[in-house]
Design brief:
It is a single chain. The chain is mainly alpha-helical. About 50% of the residues lie in helices and about 10% in strands. It folds into 2 domains: about 35 residues, no CATH class; about 80 residues, lambda repressor-like DNA-binding domains (434 Repressor (Amino-terminal Domain)). It has a two-stranded antiparallel sheet with strand order 1-2. Helix 1 packs antiparallel against helix 2.
């Protein structure tokens, strides 16, 4: 895209002083950088993904309250992680992390293991053990 054609739509970035750096071609056809305040399709996609993440967090919260899953699953969603990312942070196999989603298994975890999770979520072990509904 040419530098003069870089989108300046009213999007998520336009509500702030932030601009996104994008590549474009100048009048000589050489690649250069330009600032964009937003692009409508990208803003729509970003809004949709944020809504989906919010829904997944709400579902996980309700499941923890109903004792269907452990707080580990909620905090994983809240911190925008997936099984692969979380397992790498805590240094455990994915199957083991999934097992810790079970409330009965979670209840028997040692403080040493819970500390790994709490560090990954940037919370205390007590916050992880005593999930509070806000």
């Amino acid at each position: 895209m040419k530098k003069e054609d870089v989108p300046q739509d009213q999007g998520n970035l336009s509500r702030t002083d932030l601009k996104e750096l994008v590549y474009a071609t100048d009048e000589n056809g050489k690649y250069t950088t330009a600032l964009s305040s937003g692009w409508e399709p990208k803003s729509i996609a970003l809004s949709n993904s944020i809504e989906e993440i919010s829904e997944r967090i709400a579902i996980a919260k309700a499941q923890v309250v109903n004792n269907e899953i452990s707080p580990i699953s909620y905090y994983m969603e809240f911190c925008r992680m997936d099984i692969g990312v979380l397992s790498s942070y805590v240094g455990m196999w994915q199957w083991r992390v999934k097992r810790h989603f079970k409330p009965k298994v979670f209840a028997g975890l040692s403080d040493k293991i819970l500390k790994k999770y709490s560090d990954a979520f940037n919370i205390t072990v007590e916050e992880l053990k005593n999930f509070k509904v806000n």
